Amino acid sequence: MSPFGSSCSAALALALSLAGAPPVLAQGPGDASAIRERITRLIPEFETYLQSGMKDFKVPGVAVGIVHDDKLIYAKGFGVRERGKPDQVSPNTIFQIGSTTKAFLSTTLAQAVDSGKLSWSARVSDLMPEFQLSDPWIGREFRVLDLAAQRGGFTPYVNDALSLLGYDRATLIHSLRDAPITATFRSDFTYVNIPHIVAGEILARKAGVSSWSEVVKANILDPLGMSSTTATPEAIEKAPDHATGHRTTKADPVAIPFHASFPYAFGPAGALNSNIPDMAQWLRMQLGRGQFEDRFIVSEKNLDVTWTPRVAISERTAYAVGWVVNATPNGRIIWHNGGTSGFGAHAGFVPDRDLGIVILSNLENTGLPDAAAQWFYDRVMGNDAVDNVALALEAMRAKQEEERQKEARAKRVFPPQDLSSFAGNYASSIIGDATVQLAATKLQIKLEETDATLTLEQLDTDTFNARLDPTGPFAPVVALGGDDPVTQVRFERDDSGAIKRMRWLAPSLPHVLERQP
């Protein structure tokens, strides 16, 4: 699945469909020794189940860590760091953790509130005047807490792909002023990433440093001893024991490169690399309600703000601030998953049982990390036993079939026409100037600001698929996602039939470029 699409969205949607077993008679949390005994008995079955799931999903490698009673009680690697190579995954193997990074952001926000540098209710536009939205009232009303609560009303994943087309973080933030508000502010759950970049920039400015990665290192990673956790592609590549990411194809998964545009350009929305020992420290701090060993990391009061549901996703599931909260008959689960182009992750915990689990994998998140984690939660907590991997496989295959049928429907028959009539100069206030030109027998769009070139494949008279060309610095970007289209493009005509604008039709890239004289 392409990074231009919604791999994170699909992973989160699938995880939400698996979250929450059918109601059963509630059981008490039990004491630590009873829970430890239950986990010990469960481990052999869990390992068998996980390895079977790896085979079904074609996941090359997985690392798992279980935290209980303020200790990492289980850590193990399965499979290989790269498909077709012998190096084995170990608990120390570094993976991208994707959107599980969002909880690190929400905790750094809580720390800033603790120190008096921010308040949860501060207006974002007062802290960052360049933060503007298409609805001026919502733009003025948007508060710090809203930045990480997934309730802003935006189209899911709006403008994320601009990073893959070479645009910088300033452009991503600027793009929100033209992003349509398609859901109800503070009432509807819609998953986005760019507001988290805004939050990270605010924190960096308050701290007087250049980036949020410096904030999280100073305030969380160093105090917790998370020395293997980093935030750049260079750092994960230099790590002696790191996994290689893989994307799915119609055949077998293929290895992909690391690249700054995804997920690293998104900083606090998904940039961290980590491993099991480090993530165990993170969960220990969460389960310690802000305390880690003899250190105060964040107040329980403001950590609780990050755990508190803010917008409903379903009857028993809600989004908090950087976390998803799932209510089960036998307790709540607080978790988040991650899905990048080549990695899938799950990190979660059960506060009432002092229990947490991390599952890291080196295949884009098609469902295994979340399914395996939910299987584990249900059995430790005494919820109904469900075959979560089977449900995830069924959902993945249904999604693949839906995409296949959509691709087949897109092939249409249209009369021959003069493609040169589409050529010309176009412009947008967000993405700048674009030149449409005829190259051999196909149209191309050249984005003047970034030098990205999109080749157009005609679908009907005025509609085209636009695919990024793997040229120059964009070759590794295409390798991340294969040849999936960036968007469909429709050229619109005036009353005389002349082309007047070019409209990008992907909901996550809602841009209109006017033809210039």
Automatic annotation (TrEMBL):
Annotated Beta-lactamase-related domain residues: 47-370
A Pfam family per the record: DUF3471
Domain of life: Bacteria
InterPro entries: AmpC-like (IPR050491), Beta-lactam-related (IPR001466), Beta-lactam/transpept-like (IPR012338), Peptidase_S12_Pab87-rel_C (IPR021860)
Residue intervals of the Peptidase S12 Pab87-related C-terminal domain: 411-505
Stretch forming the signal peptide: 1-26
The keyword Hydrolase belongs to this UniProt entry's keyword annotation: yes
One function term, GO molecular function aspect: hydrolase activity
Keyword terms, alphabetized: Hydrolase, Signal
Protein name: Serine hydrolase
Source organism per UniProt: Microvirga alba
